[in-house]
Amino acid sequence: MKLYQLKASQALPITIDRAWKFISNPKNLKIITPDHMGFNIISGMERPMFPGQIIQYKVSPFKGYTTKWVTEITHVKEGTYFVDEQRFGPYALWHHKHFLNPVEGGTLMEDVIDYKIPFGIIGQLAHPLLVKKQLLEIFNYREQKLQALFGKIEGCSTELKLTSN
Q1: Tens-place pLDDT, residues 53-74
Q2: Taking the alpha carbons of 119, 120, 125, 127 in that order, is the dihedral positive or negative?
Q3: Hey, what's the torsion of the CAs at 32, 34, 70, 10, to 10 degrees?
Q4: 0.70 cut: is pTM over it?
Q5: Is residue 159 helix, strand or coil?
Q6: Which CATH number fits domain 4-36+78-164: 1.10.268.10, 3.30.70.100, 3.30.530.20, 3.30.360.10?
């Protein structure tokens, strides 16, 4: 089973505190997820983020397919990073690290996602046709949405890279 990795980075002209308040609030995930994904939080957003927090969502990653997605916040260092891991959902493995770092003029948001596709060779064949395309679309949408909400730092580029091992 292949392990895939997606890395995304985006510089925003906001303080780390403001960036943290936004990305550490599960309610804001719906704002930065494309509408066609039918993303809805079922539970787990009642308290500020903490290690051990379970968040349940419903999502439609592909037309005609809706699934429940359960993640656990496993690590939190306030204002610096947090990690969410899938406990139940569409992936065989989902480990998502969110980092915030100061840069001149604002904050660099970085995401590193390690994931595996279920269904063995069939999943591997579906990856470039469906999964990779969908993830790149989601993160491109997110980049545009965050830029619309907060602006961008002139001269700072964004990066989106997907690799497999």
Answers
A1: 999 999 998 788 899 999 999 9
A2: positive
A3: -40
A4: yes
A5: strand
A6: 3.30.530.20
